[in-house]
Design a protein that fits this description.
327 residues, mainly alpha, two-stranded antiparallel ribbon
Length: 327
């Protein structure tokens, strides 16, 4: 949650610094950009240099995390924090050092590809999705597989971009959807094999108190809202309807975070899907209220069921283990 907030803050800082109308920044070339012919195809030279840098960086990272004390300590702490502490290691210090390494690599990668794709405060941050897809395909543990998957995703996206120009029936956004689909497939297929982490502190689920006077409160507030919708002006009614929509979203957070103990923004995505569906049903098919909202809710439920397939295979959603037999 803090990372998302920081990302939105930095995006706003960039827009304030460079202006709303100059979202895409042109960067001077860093690597040689002249074109050469490879197997009958014309390829800019900087793409080949970037691929070589990726391969070289992958080899260096593999060697560091395979043979150095820092790499072995990092792998040990990733396996189990408790075991790392017993060996005299500091998981927090190792985590901070790896954050620095990851940030430097991400910054260097952005600098290298900026002359090719430009810099946009919104779309550049979305590169985390194909990066996550490559990392998941590599099992969050293999540098070589992750690098190969990243190069493969880039080539497939370039191919889809060409196919979109040749095939008019191919929907827009297919290129951007490819990494997301790969993330879902990777989690569904190998979700159980993704590495877990033995944390030092195991959180307990919060209590679920029994509501008091829920029926009376609902009747009183419902009657007050009904009277307000029938008597107030249009501005107040719009504000009241918006408040009710957000109240329902907040109730979903109470159920998911307050009672279950999970932090998630998925309900916001489901709300957006339902809103998009009700708009299309009303505008394109003429389905009236309240049938359109009910059908849109069913659409969001269907998407939620599909999203639940990979969700149950990630850390924190596994079924509880059966109790051990008594000796």
């Amino acid at each position: 949650m803090a990372s998302l907030g920081l990302m939105l803050y930095l995006q706003a800082v960039v827009q304030l610094r460079f202006g709303q109308g100059s979202a895409l920044l042109a960067i001077e070339p860093i690597l040689p950009s002249d074109r050469i012919t490879v197997l009958g195809a014309t390829v800019p030279r900087d793409r080949l240099y970037l691929a070589g840098i990726v391969v070289l960086t992958t080899a260096v990272l593999w060697a560091v995390y395979r043979f150095t004390r820092f790499g072995l300590a990092t792998r040990a702490a990733a396996e189990t924090e408790k075991g790392a502490v017993l060996l005299g290691l500091s998981p927090d210090l190792l985590g901070a050092a790896n954050w620095v390494v990851a940030a430097v690599l991400a910054g260097a990668a952005t600098i290298l590809f900026a002359p090719i794709a430009g810099i946009d405060p919104v779309t550049t941050t979305l590169l985390i999705v194909p990066a996550l897809a490559a990392a998941l395909l590599g099992g969050l543990s293999s540098f070589a597989v992750t690098a190969a998957a990243g190069l493969g995703i880039g080539m497939l996206q370039s191919l889809l971009l060409k196919l979109q120009a040749d095939w008019s029936w191919l929907p827009d956004g297919t290129q951007e959807a490819l990494p997301f689909l790969l993330v879902l497939v990777a989690i569904v297929v190998r979700g159980r094999s993704l590495p877990t982490r033995g944390a030092l502190v195991e959180g307990r689920l919060p209590g679920s108190p029994h509501p008091r006077r829920a029926a009376v409160t609902a009747l009183v507030l419902g009657a007050a809202v009904g009277v307000a919708l029938l008597t107030l002006g249009s501005t107040w009614r719009l504000g009241l309807i918006t408040s009710m929509v957000w109240a329902v979203l907040c109730l979903s957070i109470v159920v998911l975070t307050g009672f279950v103990g999970q932090i998630s923004l998925a309900q916001m995505a489901f709300a957006g899907i339902a809103g998009f569906a009700v708009a299309r049903l009303s505008a394109d098919h003429g389905i009236p209220f309240p049938v359109a909202p009910l059908l849109a809710a069913l659409v969001a439920v269907g998407v939620g069921v599909v999203a639940g397939l990979p969700a149950v295979r990630v850390r924190g959603c596994t079924s509880p283990s059966p109790p051990s037999p008594r000796p």
